[in-house]
Design brief:
Order of helices and strands: HHHHHH
Structural class: mainly alpha
Number of helices: 6
Helix content: over 70%
Largest sheet: none
Shape: elongated
Oligomer: single chain
Length: 182
């Protein structure tokens, strides 16, 4: 880059269209962040899917032939899973809690770590609730054990991917806290 090009860029700075206060507020709003939009969509899809499951599990999946503990466990685990997702969403939605950016990031880091534990625990519990519900009234033969092992494998993959995503978010915040505290 030559000096004349740099001077011309400096002189033209600020001559573009000015943004209104509303446009600036929308650009800096955390609610319009694309990651939160994807999380909101994921939360909505999961909430609808689990709600439909809870409304039809008794009729379609022969809930009347399953032990009562299996049905209760499925409902409790589903509610816990949805509550975990809502908690995680609101944790991510409100990263700033203080005027001091370092204090705010440290608090956000602690909240993210709590949300990670809550999220991963709820994933495992919901999976176990599904397993117990679907296999509680069935004798376990080799074929069903293989199906159960496949379901456990899928759960492990989801657990790994979710844990990796949480670790990435937490490491980025931890790095910011480290850089600001130096």
């Amino acid at each position: 880059m030559d000096l004349n090009h740099l001077k011309q860029g400096w002189q033209n700075a600020g001559t573009q269209e000015k943004l209104s206060q509303q446009q600036l507020a929308q650009m800096t709003s955390i609610n319009s962040h694309p990651v939160l939009g994807r999380i909101r969509r994921k939360l909505a899809v999961e909430a609808v899917t689990i709600t439909v499951l809870l409304f039809v599990f008794y009729d379609i999946f022969d809930g009347d032939q399953k032990p009562a503990y299996a049905s209760v466990l499925l409902v409790l685990c589903a509610i816990f899973y949805l509550a975990s997702n809502v908690y995680s969403y609101f944790t991510l939605k409100k990263p700033i809690t203080s005027l001091n950016i370092l204090d705010s990031l440290q608090h956000f880091l602690l909240q993210l770590q709590k949300a990670r534990v809550f999220s991963l625990t709820s994933l495992v519990l919901f999976s176990v609730g599904l397993w117990v519900f679907f296999f509680s009234a069935l004798p376990l033969d080799a074929k069903r054990l293989l199906i159960l092992a496949g379901m456990a494998g899928v759960t492990l993959v989801f657990f790994y991917l979710s844990a990796r995503l949480w670790a990435h978010w937490i490491s980025r915040i931890r790095q910011s806290v480290h850089e600001l505290s130096e």
